[in-house]
Structure formats: C-alpha cells, structure tokens
Design goal:
With 574 residues, the protein is α+β, with helices and mostly antiparallel strands. Helix 3 packs antiparallel against helix 16 and helix 17 (409-438) packs parallel to helix 19. It is built from 22 helices and 7 strands. Residues 533-545 have a biased composition (Basic and acidic residues).
C-alpha cells in the first residue's frame, strides 16, 4: 500500500519544487552568473578599507627622512589665531599657502582649482585644476621636501570596486549595480534556503571534500551575515540616483531638475560665471583657519576655488568625514573679499540619509579595531563568493563524472573563469605593487603604467587558466602568488632603501602565507585519488556489472562508490 503513492507520483511526472527548493535554485544562479565580478568587488572593496595605508606604502617618499624642508609664506593671523591648533591643522594651514602659490604660477588660466588637504595619514597636498586643456592633478612636496611618486595607490582599488576600469563610468556603474542586485537576491534566498542557519554558524567539517566547501560557504556567509546585508544594501544606495531615479524625479519634478536634490544631499552647486574683471584672491590660509573654527576639532578636507583671479571667484572649504558615521558634507563658502557667502551643515533628512549610507559603506569613521572587523568581514564575503563558485563546479563535475565523464563546455568555461578570477586577481594586485617599486619614480605617466601592469598580469593569469588543466593550474598560480608576495618586502627594501612601513610588509607576508598554504593543500590533495581515473573505473565496473555473468543477480559493483569520496582505509573504518 505504501508504494502506491510513490508509483502514482512517478507516473504523474516530477514532483513540483517546494518554496525552499525554488529559493535554492535562485540562490545558485543569482550567485553564479555574476560571481566573478562579485569576487573582484568584494576583494578590492575590502582592500579599500586600508586605501590610505596602501597609498602611503606606494608613495614611500611621504615617510622617508626629510631632505630640504619646504617653507611656505607666513600665515596671516586672524581673530582665531590665538587658538592652539593640533599639528595636523597646522600642517594644513602651511600647505594651503604652498598649494595656492603653486597653482598661481602653473595654472593661472584654469577655471577651477582644487586642493586636497593632508590629513588622516596623508602627509602631502594634492592639487588639481580644470581649464580649456582638460583636467590635471599633481602631488606637491610635503613638509619634508620630498615629492611623492605619481600613483593611484589605494584609490585604484577603491574606484575599480564600483566603476571598474577602461569602461565608460555610467556603463560600469550600471554593471556593478546590477551585480549588487544579484548579490542581494543571493543573500536573501540563501537565508530562506538554510533551515539550520544558526547550526551552520558553528559547523565546519574539514577534509570532507564537497561537504567542507559547503561548510566554509555557510560559515563565511552566516558569520558576517549582518555585514553582507549592510554592505550590499548601502552599496546599492550609493547608486540610487542612477538605478532608481523615478522617486527623486517625481519629488523634484516641479523644481530645476535634479539639481535641488544634489544640492540638498551632496552640497553640489554649479559654479558661477566669471565676471571678466580681474581681482586677486584673498589669502586662503586665514579663510581655512576661520572654517576650522566652525568645524571644531575636525579636519578640513578640500578647498575648491572657482574662477581664480576673477572678481566672481568663490572659495569653498569642506570638512572631512573621517571622524563621524555620516559622510554628509559640511562647508563654508567665501567670496573674493573673504566674506562668507553660504554655509552648509547637512541639517536635512536627505543629507543625513545619504550621508549615513555612504558612511556605513566606506567606514571612514571606524577606529582601528572596528576597521579590522570591517576588513575581516569583507574577507569573509570574498571567501563566501569564492567558495560558492567552487561548490558549483565541484558539484557539476561530480555529476558529469558519475555519468561517464562527458565534456561540458559550460562547466569547462566556469572552471577556467574561477581560476582566472580567484587565482589571477591576487597575482594582479601583486603585479600592481611590483610596478610601483620597479617603475622609476620620475617616469612620465607612471600611474597609468602601474594600472597597465595590473591588467597585464591578470591577462597572463587568465590565459594560463584557460591553457592549464585542472588542479595543476591552481597549484601553479597559488605558488606564483605566494612567491610574489613573499618577495615584495625584499623588493621594497632594495628599491627604497628603508623599511618605510613594516606593518604593511607583514600584511604582504600574511597574504603569501595564505597562498602558500593553499598551494600546499592542493599538492597534498593531488597525491590522493584522481577523479578522472576513478570515474573511468566506475564506468568499467558498471559495464561489467550490466553485461557480465552477475548481471542477472543484480549485484552491485565493488567500486560503485561516489567518485569524489575515496575509499576509507582500514584505520579509518575502525
């Protein structure tokens, strides 16, 4: 009697999927289709938590001993000059005068000057200017008199993680936005799929093949689940005006397009037209000092001067966001006579909402301990995506092997993409660091050459992934990565002549240790059973079992165990 329902179900066709099964299917494909981009975004975004540290390491001149000190013009005192200011604010006042003098000499015809002030670990000012001949930027010598080498530094990783490279910015951000949507769907469907989500938090079974990969995927997903939800949602929120503009368009339709929104949320204003009447700029340092008084103990971040040298010039000083959760701007704008024109304090719900979304995503407010937590959570997300990609290929490969080891183009392509991305990206990052140390410091366009080196190494790793077969490719790229990161501190010492950042060198050695451990594990694993050989043996046994003298007895072949599970030894059985 109990067999009749099963027979009826078989006769009636395949049983429809339940809700959890449907969510499992959605979880798999939402993660797989964009998994390689998500891995890159997670890896480079996680590295961006220390982008200032990376930039400082890539500009060792910032940290070398002083040579010829740089003296700016004396800072004109104001009513606030009696205030004793921290050393970082004093440095900002000094480099402001230096930067203004440099721009006056070299960019007098520009329509806009921007001075990115030193602070939060950055010891040099960066000046940029816009004019008829385009956009230009330059890093100025610091108080030590050394001009840092031109490099994108950690900003390259940060920019790449949300707008890629070599693509139009709008297209690239759409790609990243769509991938982030897939990521959010994968996270939510994964939560629904896992009935034992709290048990998975504490469960990891090593040396169990596919089961170990699944445990690693679950642990890294559940351990930092609040972070994964937060970082994905806030990442989408930073692109909201592009991905979902309709609400904003409806809200501000009766006004001057989207400009009022950008003004409320980002303190964005169109620059006024030049009057055509020449007028000298007021001393900038006293204006910065006045703004510092308004900002309190917080640092200023940028000074933007529109129409320099014109009677319609305006000087806007903006506060940094490193010391607070919200990244909403705060600024004060002066006219050519040094009088206050406008102030912006982000005292509206729009600015608060946007500022908190940005602040949570970038974590500029984080203390060293909290930043480390963000970094480790980002690493967990990176491992979660990588393990998910590997789980899919292992499962599909086992399925194919159990049915005769038939070649499947899609599986072959995914396996190669996995190696090209998971194995190739660390090599590309190492290549980026090597280029920074090996390209001459005064080489023209060296920042672009460093980026080209990054993609060249990644392209070579990708070609190797498509030409090399199976586990050997993983071993070779892991060994290459371990060697590359191990030698980087040596190259650093030989090319710079000093250990400028020993902590960063230790981090490079830690990355080398991880890649070396991966290579050791793969080499050890390669001495075990070969999946291809086991699959062929299984096929032979099945054929003999079906066609031999024992076929009518229905005896199971001795080697019909799953091909991905090696036979237990006698000691394991006991």
């Amino acid at each position: 009697m109990s067999k009749k329902p099963k027979a009826a179900a078989a006769a009636g066709g395949e049983k429809p999927r339940g809700f959890r099964q449907s969510m499992a299917w959605l979880h798999t494909w939402a993660g797989l289709l964009v998994g390689w981009i998500l891995f890159t975004v997670f890896a480079l975004g996680t590295a961006s938590y220390y982008r200032t540290t990376i930039t400082n390491w890539m500009q060792p001149e910032r940290l070398l001993p002083a040579t010829t000190p740089v003296h700016g013009d004396p800072v004109t005192s104001t009513a606030d000059s009696h205030v004793t200011r921290p050393m970082n604010q004093q440095a900002q006042l000094q480099v402001t005068t230096q930067a203004t003098r440099w721009l006056t000499r070299h960019a007098a015809a520009a329509t806009r000057w921007t001075i990115a002030l030193p602070g939060s670990g950055v010891t040099n000012a960066t000046v940029s200017w816009e004019g008829p001949d385009g956009y230009h930027s330059r890093i100025l010598p610091g108080v030590k008199g050394l001009t840092p080498r031109q490099t994108e530094g950690g900003d390259f990783f940060y920019d790449f993680h949300f707008q890629l490279h070599y693509l139009p910015i709008g297209v690239a951000r759409w790609i990243i936005g769509i991938c982030a949507m897939f990521m959010l769907v994968a996270i939510i469907s994964g939560i629904v799929t896992h009935r034992r989500i709290f048990v998975d938090f504490f469960t990891f079974r090593p040396r169990k093949g596919q089961r170990s990969w699944l445990d690693a995927h679950n642990v890294t997903g559940v351990l930092a689940l609040p972070y994964h939800l937060m970082i994905t949602y806030t990442g989408l929120a930073t692109l909201m005006t592009m991905l979902m503009p309709w609400g904003l368009q409806e809200r501000y339709a009766a006004q001057d397009g989207m400009l009022p929104f950008y003004s409320e949320a980002y303190d964005f204003r169109l620059a006024g037209m030049a009057s055509g009447q020449a007028a000298p700029l007021p001393p900038i340092a006293p204006l910065l000092e006045h703004a510092m008084t308004r900002f309190g103990e917080h640092e200023a971040a940028t000074i933007v001067i529109d129409n320099p040298g014109d009677a319609a010039a305006q000087i806007k000083v903006s506060r940094g966001s490193d010391a607070r959760l919200s990244a909403a701007p705060q600024s004060i704008t002066f006219d050519v006579h040094g009088k206050t024109v406008t102030t912006y304090d982000a005292d509206n719900a729009v600015a608060d909402t946007v500022g908190v979304m940005y602040g949570l995503h970038e974590a500029r407010f984080a203390s060293p301990g909290l930043r480390a937590v963000f970094f480790l959570s980002g690493l967990a997300g990176t491992l979660m995506v990588a393990s998910g990609l590997i789980i899919w290929t292992n499962k599909q490969r086992q399925k194919r092997l159990s049915h005769g080891n038939r070649f499947h183009l899609g599986l072959w392509f995914v396996e190669r993409l996995n190696l090209a991305t998971i194995g190739g990206l660390p090599l590309a990052m190492a290549g980026f660091f090597y280029a920074n140390r090996l390209i001459p410091a005064l080489q023209a366009h060296r920042a672009a050459l460093e980026i080209q080196a990054f993609f060249a190494v990644w392209a070579v790793a990708a070609m190797h992934a498509f030409l090399c077969r199976g586990r050997a490719g993983w071993i070779m790229q892991s060994v290459a990565g371990a060697m590359a990161f191990t030698l980087l501190p040596v190259i650093d010492r030989l090319t710079v002549g000093a250990w400028v950042m020993p902590g960063f060198d230790i981090a490079l050695l830690a990355a080398a240790a991880v890649l070396g451990a991966m290579a050791w594990f793969l080499v050890k694993k390669s001495s075990g059973p070969d999946l291809d050989r086991m699959a062929r043996a299984n096929q032979t046994d099945r054929h003999e079992a079906l066609s031999g003298p024992n076929a009518t007895e229905g005896r199971r072949p001795a080697s019909s165990a799953l091909p991905h599970l090696p036979a237990r030894s006698a000691s394991e059985s006991r």
